[in-house]
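It is worth pausing here to work through a concrete case rather than discussing structure prediction in the abstract. The textbook approach is simple: state the sequence, then state the predicted structure, then interpret. We follow exactly that order.
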Amino acid sequence: MPAPRLAREAGARPASGRLVFLDALRGFALVFMVLNHTGRWWQDRSMGWPWYYSIYVTMAVAAPTFLFLVGFCLPLSLGKVRGRVTEQVLPTLWKYAKHGGRIILAGLLLNVLVFPEDPFWSNGVLQTIGLGIIVAAPVGLFLRSRVARYVVVAAAVLVYLSFGWCFGPLGDWVAAHPMSSRVLFLEFPPWPWVALVLFGLVLGQLWVEQPDSRRRARYMLAMAAAGLLCIAWLFAYDAWAHTEYRFMFKRDFILNKHWTPRGATAVWVIGMTFVLMAVFYYVGEVRGLRLTWLGTLGRTALFLYFVHQLIVLTLVNQYLHLRFNNWWRYAVANLLLLFLLLGLGRLWIEVKRFSRAKLASFGVVRRA
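Step two, the predicted structure:
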């Protein structure tokens, strides 16, 4: 590989050693999540079909990207202990169980603060992310063989297909148990969404095993090609099947008033995720662009996911009773919100850095 490209790739990584493209993609997904929530809570049906389609597309991109990245990123950290599985398996499982458990608790706290009228045990995307980490981490320790990867991919496909097979009975069960069903089947329920985490886990393991930057770039090029085929498949299928409700919630699974993609839409969601992965890899790792503001949003995504809902729903919608049923005012309001979130994210990074430095110095004093 030419020296300038090596320099660009090295320069794309911050001092922490984090991969720019993963942080930036996570930040991009957060922006789409924010736009989805502001569309739902700052506007109403009077905005017409553009409003409806914007909510559909932002939902179909944001949360699936988060969940896929959960699985894709796990091999990056698991690789440090995979060679010492026999002596590290229990500490590793405990580490990721704690991490996933903290995210689940954050989701429950979010319910208490932002949705006090609903049962606090209601499932949300944070709970599914936390559970996905707890499930996928032990699986990731044993993905070195081709057979193991095939088994995990087959299991992920089966998890998704079984949800479709059981959709009718699940709808009846949810209707008969309106309160308890919220634990398992509300926003991005673990069944089937953990399947996307497992799928991302296998693809992340394959990417980690690429021996050099040239092979990793080829891997991402293959992902881009596969993603474009998946996107094209949706349009070809809809033309062939004369699909009536294109890019509408009516074409998908709606369980407990919440969305899960069905059939061709699921293929499109995976295709969009693949293409975004490849685009951000090219921009952040090959071209060497820092993508600083997206990286900041991505590094603080959990904190900002929490905070932005307090701002968008609790403060602006419920307390100030503001509506932005004008596209120009809505765009300006979102731009100001993103600037605020960027500032809060930067502040949160500095707070964590200061806290770690203080704790480290305190430990030195104690040892002395």
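Step three, interpretation. Strands lie at 253-255, 258-260. The chain has 13 helices and two strands.
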